[in-house]
Design goal:
This protein is of the alpha/beta class and about 425 residues long. It has 19 helices and twelve strands. Helix 6 (about 130-135) runs parallel beside helix 14, helix 10 packs antiparallel against helix 11 (about 240-255) and helix 18 packs antiparallel against helix 19.
Protein backbone atom coordinates (compact mmCIF):
# COMPACT_ATOMS: atom_id res chain seq x y z
CA UNK A 1 0.00 0.00 0.00
CA UNK A 2 1.36 3.40 -0.93
CA UNK A 3 0.56 6.31 1.32
CA UNK A 4 -0.36 9.72 0.02
CA UNK A 5 1.09 12.92 1.41
CA UNK A 6 -2.52 14.08 1.36
CA UNK A 7 -3.77 11.38 3.63
CA UNK A 8 -6.11 10.35 0.85
CA UNK A 9 -4.14 7.84 -1.13
CA UNK A 10 -5.13 4.24 -1.39
CA UNK A 11 -3.76 0.99 -2.68
CA UNK A 12 -2.57 1.58 -6.21
CA UNK A 13 -1.76 -0.81 -9.02
CA UNK A 14 -0.05 -3.21 -6.68
CA UNK A 15 -3.37 -3.86 -4.99
CA UNK A 16 -5.21 -4.24 -8.26
CA UNK A 17 -2.61 -6.71 -9.50
CA UNK A 18 -3.05 -8.64 -6.26
CA UNK A 19 -6.77 -8.76 -6.81
CA UNK A 20 -6.30 -9.95 -10.37
CA UNK A 21 -3.97 -12.70 -9.23
CA UNK A 22 -6.71 -14.00 -6.94
CA UNK A 23 -8.68 -15.14 -9.98
CA UNK A 24 -9.21 -18.58 -11.45
CA UNK A 25 -7.54 -21.62 -10.01
CA UNK A 26 -5.48 -19.59 -7.56
CA UNK A 27 -8.64 -18.39 -5.82
CA UNK A 28 -10.07 -21.88 -5.68
CA UNK A 29 -6.99 -23.84 -4.74
CA UNK A 30 -3.78 -22.06 -3.84
CA UNK A 31 -2.01 -25.24 -4.91
CA UNK A 32 1.72 -25.56 -4.46
CA UNK A 33 1.92 -23.00 -1.65
CA UNK A 34 1.69 -23.80 2.07
CA UNK A 35 -1.96 -23.25 2.95
CA UNK A 36 -3.12 -20.60 5.36
CA UNK A 37 -4.18 -21.97 8.70
CA UNK A 38 -5.61 -20.58 11.89
CA UNK A 39 -3.40 -19.13 14.61
CA UNK A 40 -1.67 -21.93 16.44
CA UNK A 41 -3.30 -24.66 14.33
CA UNK A 42 -6.67 -26.34 14.54
CA UNK A 43 -6.86 -26.25 18.32
CA UNK A 44 -6.55 -22.49 18.48
CA UNK A 45 -9.41 -20.25 19.39
CA UNK A 46 -10.98 -22.50 22.07
CA UNK A 47 -9.70 -20.20 24.83
CA UNK A 48 -12.72 -18.11 25.93
CA UNK A 49 -10.38 -15.20 26.58
CA UNK A 50 -8.97 -15.17 23.02
CA UNK A 51 -10.42 -14.24 19.62
CA UNK A 52 -8.38 -15.21 16.55
CA UNK A 53 -8.22 -12.97 13.46
CA UNK A 54 -6.94 -13.92 10.01
CA UNK A 55 -5.43 -10.79 8.50
CA UNK A 56 -4.39 -9.82 4.96
CA UNK A 57 -3.05 -6.50 6.24
CA UNK A 58 0.62 -7.30 5.87
CA UNK A 59 1.79 -3.79 4.93
CA UNK A 60 3.35 -1.86 7.81
CA UNK A 61 0.92 1.06 8.08
CA UNK A 62 -2.41 -0.82 8.10
CA UNK A 63 -0.88 -3.60 10.20
CA UNK A 64 -0.06 -1.07 12.93
CA UNK A 65 -3.44 0.64 12.59
CA UNK A 66 -5.32 -2.62 13.08
CA UNK A 67 -3.00 -3.50 15.94
CA UNK A 68 -3.95 -0.26 17.67
CA UNK A 69 -7.64 -1.18 17.39
CA UNK A 70 -7.07 -4.66 18.83
CA UNK A 71 -5.03 -3.21 21.72
CA UNK A 72 -7.86 -0.81 22.55
CA UNK A 73 -10.37 -3.67 22.41
CA UNK A 74 -8.24 -5.76 24.78
CA UNK A 75 -8.02 -2.89 27.26
CA UNK A 76 -11.79 -2.45 27.15
CA UNK A 77 -12.89 -6.10 27.14
CA UNK A 78 -10.07 -8.07 28.70
CA UNK A 79 -10.10 -10.38 25.68
CA UNK A 80 -6.91 -11.08 23.75
CA UNK A 81 -6.86 -10.78 19.95
CA UNK A 82 -4.51 -13.32 18.36
CA UNK A 83 -3.74 -12.01 14.86
CA UNK A 84 -2.63 -14.37 12.10
CA UNK A 85 -1.16 -12.01 9.47
CA UNK A 86 -0.30 -13.35 6.02
CA UNK A 87 1.09 -11.70 2.92
CA UNK A 88 -1.75 -9.88 1.15
CA UNK A 89 -1.33 -11.81 -2.09
CA UNK A 90 -1.03 -15.21 -0.41
CA UNK A 91 -4.17 -14.50 1.61
CA UNK A 92 -6.10 -13.63 -1.55
CA UNK A 93 -4.95 -16.73 -3.42
CA UNK A 94 -5.69 -19.17 -0.63
CA UNK A 95 -8.84 -17.68 0.91
CA UNK A 96 -11.14 -20.43 -0.39
CA UNK A 97 -9.01 -23.29 0.95
CA UNK A 98 -8.40 -21.38 4.17
CA UNK A 99 -12.12 -20.94 4.86
CA UNK A 100 -12.83 -24.62 4.12
CA UNK A 101 -10.14 -25.72 6.54
CA UNK A 102 -9.67 -24.49 10.11
CA UNK A 103 -9.89 -20.72 9.73
CA UNK A 104 -9.56 -18.11 12.43
CA UNK A 105 -12.70 -16.82 14.15
CA UNK A 106 -12.71 -13.52 12.24
CA UNK A 107 -10.99 -12.53 9.00
CA UNK A 108 -10.31 -9.38 6.98
CA UNK A 109 -12.16 -9.21 3.67
CA UNK A 110 -14.02 -7.00 1.20
CA UNK A 111 -17.63 -5.85 1.00
CA UNK A 112 -20.00 -6.57 -1.88
CA UNK A 113 -19.88 -9.60 -4.17
CA UNK A 114 -16.66 -10.95 -2.69
CA UNK A 115 -18.33 -11.14 0.69
CA UNK A 116 -21.55 -12.57 -0.79
CA UNK A 117 -19.62 -15.27 -2.67
CA UNK A 118 -18.33 -16.89 0.52
CA UNK A 119 -21.56 -16.27 2.42
CA UNK A 120 -23.50 -18.14 -0.28
CA UNK A 121 -21.04 -21.07 -0.08
CA UNK A 122 -21.70 -21.39 3.66
CA UNK A 123 -18.13 -20.41 4.52
CA UNK A 124 -19.11 -17.40 6.66
CA UNK A 125 -21.44 -16.86 9.60
CA UNK A 126 -24.33 -14.36 9.56
CA UNK A 127 -23.93 -11.59 12.13
CA UNK A 128 -27.39 -10.07 12.41
CA UNK A 129 -27.00 -10.08 16.21
CA UNK A 130 -23.99 -7.78 15.87
CA UNK A 131 -25.84 -5.42 13.54
CA UNK A 132 -28.63 -5.04 16.10
CA UNK A 133 -26.01 -3.18 18.16
CA UNK A 134 -23.99 -1.38 15.48
CA UNK A 135 -26.66 -0.61 12.86
CA UNK A 136 -27.14 2.97 14.04
CA UNK A 137 -23.49 3.75 13.28
CA UNK A 138 -23.80 3.30 9.51
CA UNK A 139 -25.70 4.91 6.62
CA UNK A 140 -28.23 2.82 4.69
CA UNK A 141 -25.92 2.34 1.69
CA UNK A 142 -23.24 0.83 3.93
CA UNK A 143 -25.81 -1.49 5.52
CA UNK A 144 -26.88 -2.72 2.09
CA UNK A 145 -23.24 -3.31 1.20
CA UNK A 146 -22.82 -5.58 4.24
CA UNK A 147 -25.63 -8.03 3.47
CA UNK A 148 -25.50 -11.37 1.70
CA UNK A 149 -27.86 -12.39 -1.08
CA UNK A 150 -30.09 -13.94 1.61
CA UNK A 151 -30.61 -10.56 3.25
CA UNK A 152 -28.57 -11.42 6.34
CA UNK A 153 -25.56 -9.41 7.52
CA UNK A 154 -22.14 -10.99 7.01
CA UNK A 155 -19.78 -8.02 7.09
CA UNK A 156 -18.66 -5.19 9.37
CA UNK A 157 -17.19 -2.31 7.31
CA UNK A 158 -14.29 -0.26 8.62
CA UNK A 159 -12.72 1.91 5.89
CA UNK A 160 -13.59 3.08 2.40
CA UNK A 161 -12.74 5.61 -0.35
CA UNK A 162 -14.50 7.02 -3.43
CA UNK A 163 -13.98 7.07 -7.16
CA UNK A 164 -14.73 10.47 -8.68
CA UNK A 165 -13.60 12.95 -11.35
CA UNK A 166 -10.56 14.89 -10.11
CA UNK A 167 -9.51 18.32 -11.35
CA UNK A 168 -7.41 21.39 -10.51
CA UNK A 169 -9.49 24.29 -9.18
CA UNK A 170 -7.04 26.82 -10.61
CA UNK A 171 -7.42 25.34 -14.11
CA UNK A 172 -11.20 25.58 -13.92
CA UNK A 173 -10.94 29.19 -12.65
CA UNK A 174 -8.44 30.13 -15.34
CA UNK A 175 -10.68 28.95 -18.17
CA UNK A 176 -14.04 29.71 -16.57
CA UNK A 177 -15.14 26.07 -16.47
CA UNK A 178 -18.13 24.96 -14.42
CA UNK A 179 -18.32 21.55 -12.78
CA UNK A 180 -20.48 19.37 -15.08
CA UNK A 181 -23.52 17.75 -13.51
CA UNK A 182 -25.00 16.04 -16.60
CA UNK A 183 -23.61 13.97 -19.46
CA UNK A 184 -24.20 16.77 -21.96
CA UNK A 185 -22.34 19.17 -19.65
CA UNK A 186 -19.43 16.74 -19.51
CA UNK A 187 -19.18 16.30 -23.27
CA UNK A 188 -19.43 20.07 -23.81
CA UNK A 189 -16.68 20.65 -21.23
CA UNK A 190 -14.45 18.07 -22.94
CA UNK A 191 -14.88 19.94 -26.23
CA UNK A 192 -13.95 23.25 -24.59
CA UNK A 193 -10.90 21.76 -22.93
CA UNK A 194 -9.68 20.27 -26.19
CA UNK A 195 -10.12 23.64 -27.90
CA UNK A 196 -8.18 25.26 -25.07
CA UNK A 197 -5.22 22.93 -25.66
CA UNK A 198 -5.82 20.64 -22.68
CA UNK A 199 -6.12 16.86 -22.59
CA UNK A 200 -9.76 16.70 -21.43
CA UNK A 201 -9.52 13.33 -19.63
CA UNK A 202 -6.22 11.95 -18.34
CA UNK A 203 -6.08 8.19 -18.89
CA UNK A 204 -3.64 5.32 -18.48
CA UNK A 205 -4.65 1.66 -18.77
CA UNK A 206 -1.31 -0.14 -18.95
CA UNK A 207 -2.28 -2.20 -15.88
CA UNK A 208 -5.72 -2.93 -17.39
CA UNK A 209 -7.82 -2.10 -14.30
CA UNK A 210 -8.48 1.69 -14.62
CA UNK A 211 -10.85 1.23 -17.58
CA UNK A 212 -13.10 -0.90 -15.40
CA UNK A 213 -13.80 2.18 -13.29
CA UNK A 214 -15.02 4.13 -16.31
CA UNK A 215 -17.34 1.30 -17.31
CA UNK A 216 -18.78 1.16 -13.80
CA UNK A 217 -19.54 4.88 -13.65
CA UNK A 218 -21.32 4.97 -17.01
CA UNK A 219 -23.21 1.75 -16.30
CA UNK A 220 -24.76 2.71 -12.99
CA UNK A 221 -25.43 6.28 -14.13
CA UNK A 222 -27.18 4.98 -17.26
CA UNK A 223 -28.80 1.77 -16.02
CA UNK A 224 -28.95 2.16 -12.25
CA UNK A 225 -27.46 0.34 -9.29
CA UNK A 226 -29.68 -2.77 -9.47
CA UNK A 227 -28.82 -3.57 -13.09
CA UNK A 228 -25.14 -2.93 -12.42
CA UNK A 229 -25.16 -5.42 -9.53
CA UNK A 230 -27.03 -8.02 -11.61
CA UNK A 231 -24.55 -7.63 -14.46
CA UNK A 232 -21.52 -7.96 -12.20
CA UNK A 233 -23.01 -11.05 -10.53
CA UNK A 234 -23.46 -12.79 -13.88
CA UNK A 235 -27.25 -12.60 -13.72
CA UNK A 236 -27.80 -10.04 -16.52
CA UNK A 237 -26.67 -10.50 -20.11
CA UNK A 238 -23.74 -8.63 -21.61
CA UNK A 239 -25.61 -8.62 -24.91
CA UNK A 240 -28.46 -6.65 -23.34
CA UNK A 241 -29.15 -3.34 -25.13
CA UNK A 242 -28.48 -1.59 -21.81
CA UNK A 243 -24.85 -2.75 -21.93
CA UNK A 244 -24.46 -1.72 -25.56
CA UNK A 245 -25.70 1.75 -24.54
CA UNK A 246 -22.89 1.97 -21.99
CA UNK A 247 -20.30 1.43 -24.70
CA UNK A 248 -22.08 3.86 -27.04
CA UNK A 249 -21.79 6.57 -24.39
CA UNK A 250 -18.18 5.66 -23.68
CA UNK A 251 -17.37 5.86 -27.40
CA UNK A 252 -18.65 9.44 -27.34
CA UNK A 253 -16.03 10.26 -24.70
CA UNK A 254 -13.12 8.37 -26.26
CA UNK A 255 -11.95 11.24 -28.52
CA UNK A 256 -11.30 13.21 -25.33
CA UNK A 257 -9.29 10.51 -23.57
CA UNK A 258 -5.54 10.87 -23.38
CA UNK A 259 -3.77 9.18 -26.31
CA UNK A 260 -1.30 6.33 -25.80
CA UNK A 261 -3.14 4.96 -22.78
CA UNK A 262 -2.06 1.33 -23.39
CA UNK A 263 1.51 2.21 -22.51
CA UNK A 264 0.76 4.58 -19.63
CA UNK A 265 0.34 3.76 -15.95
CA UNK A 266 -2.23 5.57 -13.83
CA UNK A 267 0.61 7.40 -12.07
CA UNK A 268 1.92 8.79 -15.37
CA UNK A 269 -1.59 9.85 -16.34
CA UNK A 270 -1.97 11.58 -12.98
CA UNK A 271 1.18 13.60 -13.65
CA UNK A 272 -0.56 15.28 -16.59
CA UNK A 273 -3.19 16.52 -14.13
CA UNK A 274 -0.46 17.66 -11.73
CA UNK A 275 1.24 19.53 -14.59
CA UNK A 276 -2.06 21.16 -15.63
CA UNK A 277 -1.85 19.51 -19.05
CA UNK A 278 -5.05 17.54 -18.42
CA UNK A 279 -8.33 18.98 -17.26
CA UNK A 280 -9.92 15.96 -15.53
CA UNK A 281 -9.11 12.45 -14.33
CA UNK A 282 -11.59 9.72 -13.34
CA UNK A 283 -9.93 7.59 -10.66
CA UNK A 284 -10.00 6.59 -7.01
CA UNK A 285 -8.94 9.18 -4.48
CA UNK A 286 -5.50 7.57 -4.32
CA UNK A 287 -4.70 9.90 -7.25
CA UNK A 288 -3.82 12.45 -4.56
CA UNK A 289 -0.61 10.57 -3.78
CA UNK A 290 0.85 11.97 -7.01
CA UNK A 291 0.40 15.52 -5.72
CA UNK A 292 3.58 15.71 -3.69
CA UNK A 293 3.72 19.52 -3.57
CA UNK A 294 1.38 20.98 -0.93
CA UNK A 295 0.27 23.87 -3.14
CA UNK A 296 -0.68 21.42 -5.90
CA UNK A 297 -2.46 19.20 -3.40
CA UNK A 298 -4.42 22.11 -1.97
CA UNK A 299 -5.55 22.88 -5.53
CA UNK A 300 -6.93 19.37 -6.09
CA UNK A 301 -10.69 18.84 -6.00
CA UNK A 302 -13.24 16.35 -7.36
CA UNK A 303 -16.87 15.95 -8.35
CA UNK A 304 -19.11 12.87 -8.72
CA UNK A 305 -19.45 11.44 -12.20
CA UNK A 306 -22.25 13.40 -13.94
CA UNK A 307 -25.84 12.27 -14.27
CA UNK A 308 -26.89 10.44 -17.44
CA UNK A 309 -30.42 9.24 -16.69
CA UNK A 310 -32.33 11.53 -14.26
CA UNK A 311 -34.06 8.43 -12.87
CA UNK A 312 -30.75 7.44 -11.25
CA UNK A 313 -29.10 10.85 -10.91
CA UNK A 314 -25.80 10.68 -9.03
CA UNK A 315 -27.10 8.48 -6.22
CA UNK A 316 -24.56 5.65 -6.65
CA UNK A 317 -20.94 6.04 -5.55
CA UNK A 318 -18.11 3.59 -6.22
CA UNK A 319 -16.54 3.13 -2.80
CA UNK A 320 -14.37 0.02 -2.28
CA UNK A 321 -14.80 -0.97 1.37
CA UNK A 322 -12.66 -3.13 3.66
CA UNK A 323 -13.78 -4.77 6.88
CA UNK A 324 -14.40 -8.06 8.66
CA UNK A 325 -16.28 -11.35 8.32
CA UNK A 326 -16.78 -14.33 10.64
CA UNK A 327 -15.78 -17.86 9.66
CA UNK A 328 -18.38 -20.65 9.45
CA UNK A 329 -17.72 -22.12 12.92
CA UNK A 330 -15.92 -19.63 15.17
CA UNK A 331 -14.53 -21.29 18.30
CA UNK A 332 -15.21 -18.28 20.53
CA UNK A 333 -18.60 -17.00 19.41
CA UNK A 334 -19.15 -14.77 22.43
CA UNK A 335 -15.74 -13.16 21.98
CA UNK A 336 -16.35 -12.72 18.24
CA UNK A 337 -19.58 -10.82 18.92
CA UNK A 338 -17.82 -8.52 21.37
CA UNK A 339 -14.95 -7.85 18.93
CA UNK A 340 -17.26 -7.11 16.00
CA UNK A 341 -19.44 -4.85 18.09
CA UNK A 342 -16.28 -2.89 18.94
CA UNK A 343 -15.06 -2.87 15.33
CA UNK A 344 -18.44 -1.41 14.31
CA UNK A 345 -18.03 1.66 16.53
CA UNK A 346 -16.89 5.14 15.48
CA UNK A 347 -14.21 4.80 18.18
CA UNK A 348 -12.56 1.86 16.39
CA UNK A 349 -12.50 3.72 13.08
CA UNK A 350 -11.05 6.85 14.66
CA UNK A 351 -8.25 4.76 16.22
CA UNK A 352 -7.48 3.24 12.82
CA UNK A 353 -7.40 6.57 11.00
CA UNK A 354 -4.87 8.02 13.45
CA UNK A 355 -2.31 5.57 12.08
CA UNK A 356 -3.57 5.27 8.51
CA UNK A 357 -5.05 8.52 7.11
CA UNK A 358 -5.13 7.09 3.57
CA UNK A 359 -8.83 6.18 3.80
CA UNK A 360 -12.05 7.46 5.38
CA UNK A 361 -14.35 5.88 7.94
CA UNK A 362 -17.23 3.68 6.81
CA UNK A 363 -19.35 4.91 9.72
CA UNK A 364 -21.13 8.23 9.34
CA UNK A 365 -20.82 8.73 13.10
CA UNK A 366 -17.01 8.81 13.16
CA UNK A 367 -15.37 12.18 13.81
CA UNK A 368 -14.05 13.96 10.73
CA UNK A 369 -12.17 16.61 12.72
CA UNK A 370 -8.76 15.26 11.71
CA UNK A 371 -9.67 14.91 8.03
CA UNK A 372 -8.14 16.96 5.24
CA UNK A 373 -10.56 18.95 3.07
CA UNK A 374 -10.44 16.19 0.44
CA UNK A 375 -11.11 13.50 3.04
CA UNK A 376 -14.08 15.43 4.41
CA UNK A 377 -15.55 15.78 0.93
CA UNK A 378 -14.94 12.07 0.23
CA UNK A 379 -16.60 11.12 3.50
CA UNK A 380 -19.65 13.29 2.76
CA UNK A 381 -19.95 11.89 -0.77
CA UNK A 382 -19.90 8.29 0.49
CA UNK A 383 -22.14 8.75 3.52
CA UNK A 384 -24.69 10.64 1.40
CA UNK A 385 -24.91 8.00 -1.34
CA UNK A 386 -28.09 5.99 -1.83
CA UNK A 387 -26.09 2.99 -3.09
CA UNK A 388 -22.42 2.00 -2.98
CA UNK A 389 -20.55 -0.21 -5.44
CA UNK A 390 -17.16 -1.83 -4.94
CA UNK A 391 -15.35 -1.57 -8.30
CA UNK A 392 -15.70 -4.25 -10.96
CA UNK A 393 -12.96 -6.53 -9.65
CA UNK A 394 -14.69 -6.71 -6.25
CA UNK A 395 -18.29 -6.65 -7.49
CA UNK A 396 -17.77 -9.69 -9.72
CA UNK A 397 -15.79 -12.91 -9.83
CA UNK A 398 -12.08 -12.07 -9.98
CA UNK A 399 -11.41 -14.77 -12.57
CA UNK A 400 -14.06 -13.20 -14.83
CA UNK A 401 -12.77 -9.64 -14.46
CA UNK A 402 -9.11 -10.58 -14.92
CA UNK A 403 -9.39 -13.00 -17.83
CA UNK A 404 -12.41 -11.58 -19.66
CA UNK A 405 -13.19 -7.98 -18.78
CA UNK A 406 -9.73 -6.47 -18.56
CA UNK A 407 -8.62 -7.62 -22.03
CA UNK A 408 -12.15 -7.08 -23.35
CA UNK A 409 -12.28 -3.44 -22.31
CA UNK A 410 -8.86 -2.84 -23.83
CA UNK A 411 -10.10 -4.32 -27.11
CA UNK A 412 -13.03 -1.90 -27.03
CA UNK A 413 -10.78 1.08 -26.33
CA UNK A 414 -8.66 0.21 -29.35
CA UNK A 415 -11.59 -0.70 -31.60
CA UNK A 416 -14.89 0.78 -30.36
CA UNK A 417 -16.68 -0.27 -33.56
CA UNK A 418 -16.24 -3.96 -32.76
CA UNK A 419 -18.34 -3.84 -29.59
CA UNK A 420 -21.13 -6.19 -30.75
CA UNK A 421 -18.77 -9.11 -31.35
CA UNK A 422 -16.92 -8.27 -28.16
CA UNK A 423 -20.07 -8.38 -26.02
CA UNK A 424 -21.15 -11.69 -27.55
CA UNK A 425 -17.76 -13.11 -26.64
CA UNK A 426 -17.96 -11.71 -23.11
CA UNK A 427 -21.40 -13.24 -22.59
CA UNK A 428 -20.22 -16.69 -23.78
CA UNK A 429 -17.23 -16.63 -21.45
CA UNK A 430 -19.33 -15.30 -18.57
CA UNK A 431 -21.73 -18.26 -18.82
CA UNK A 432 -18.84 -20.71 -18.64
CA UNK A 433 -17.10 -19.02 -15.70
CA UNK A 434 -20.18 -18.38 -13.60
CA UNK A 435 -21.37 -21.94 -14.16
CA UNK A 436 -18.26 -23.20 -12.36
CA UNK A 437 -18.08 -23.48 -8.60
Amino acid sequence: MRLSPSGLSLPGPSRRSLLRSAGGAALLAGAGIPLLSACGGSGSGSDPKTVTVGSNQSDAVPKKAYGDIYAAFTRQSGLKVDVNTKDHNTFQEQINSYLQGTPDDVFNWFAGYRMQFFAAKGLASPIDDVWEKIGGNFPEAMKKLSKGADGKYYFVPLTTYPWAVFYRRSVFRQHGYDVPTTWDDLVALCKRMKKDGLVPIAFGDKDAWPAMGTFDQINFRLNGYDFHVQLMAGKASWTDAKVKAVFDHWAELLPYHQDGFMGRTWQDAAQTLVAKKAGMYLLGSFVAQQFTDKADLDDLDFFPFPEIDPAYGQDTVEAPTDGFMVSKSPKNHAGVVKLLEFLGTPQAEEIYLKSDPSVVAASDKASTSSYSALQKKAFEMISGAKSLTQFMDRDSRPDFTSTVMQPGLQKFLQNPKGVDDLLSSVERQKKTIFASS
